[in-house]
Amino acid sequence: MKKLLLSMILVAFAIIAFAQKNPAQVSDLLNRIGGEGTSSRIETRVKRSLSKDVFEISSKKGKPYIEGSSLSALTTGIGWYLNHYAHINLSWNNLTTDLSKVNLPVPQAIERRECSAVYRYYLNYCTYSYSMAFWGEKEWQDELDWLALNGVNVVLDATAQEEVWRRFLTSIGYTHEEVLKFVAGPAYYAWAYMANLSGFGGPVHDSWFSCRT
After folding, report:
1. How far apart are CA 175 and CA 95, in angstroms?
2. What is the pLDDT of residues 101-123, one digit of tens each?
3. Packing angle, helices 137-149 and 71-84, rounded to 10
C-alpha cells in the first residue's frame, strides 16, 4: 500500500512538472505584443503530455485558454488565436497592437492543431545582409516574437562567423591586420559566407570580434 501511494505521489509530481501554467516567457511575449496586462487576459499552459507538436485553444474562467506541447507550440497557438479568433494579424511591419481596447473572443469549443513537421526552418545567408545588418535590439526582439507566433523552431544562426574566421586564419599564420583585410563588412556577409568576395565593405571594428567570443 505504501509503495502504491508513493508511486501515485511521484506520478502527481511528474504531471505538475510537465504542465507549466503561464510560463514567464509567454507572459512577457503577450505583454510586448499586446500591451501591459495582456498576459492576465489569456490563460496559457505548457502541457507536455500532449502528443507531438500540438496546441489546443479553448476557454477557462471566461478567458481564452491555450495549451501547447512545448513553448513553441504554445506561442504558435497564441498567434493562431489572435489571427483566427480576434482577427488580428501581427506582421513584420506592425508587431504590436493595443489589446486593452480589443474584445478577446472566448472559444465555444476546443480547437486542436497538430504539426507533422518536426523542424520549421527559417532564414538563409542572404537574409543576414540587407537591412538585418543594421538591426538593433528592438528589431531583433520583434523578429524573435514573430518567429514564436508563427511556429518557427529552427533558425540559421550566422552570428560570430567573423570570429570563427579570425581564429582559423590566425591559427594558420595570418596577422590580425590581414584578417581585417579579409573579413567583409556586415552588409556583405551574405556574399562573404558563400565565398563570393572578401574584404569588401570592411574592415570591421575589433568590437565585432571581442563581443562575439
Report:
1. 45
2. 889 999 999 999 999 888 999 99
3. 80
State the Cα–Cα distance between residues 203 and 205, nearest whole angstrom.
7
d(CA 66, CA 23): 12
pTM: 0.80
Rounded to whole angstroms, the Cα distance separating 162 from 120 reads 26
User: How many Cβ atoms are within 10 Å of 160's Cβ, its own excluded?
Assistant: 15
pLDDT of the residue at 211 = 64
Q: What is the mean predicted confidence (pLDDT) over 145-164?
A: 90
Tell me the residue length of the chain.
213
Residue 2 has pLDDT above 70, yes or no: no
53 DSSP β-pair partners: 115
> What is the dihedral angle through the alpha carbons of 132, 133, 136, 138, rounded to the nearest 10 degrees?
0
CA 124 to CA 147: how far, in whole Å?
A: 15
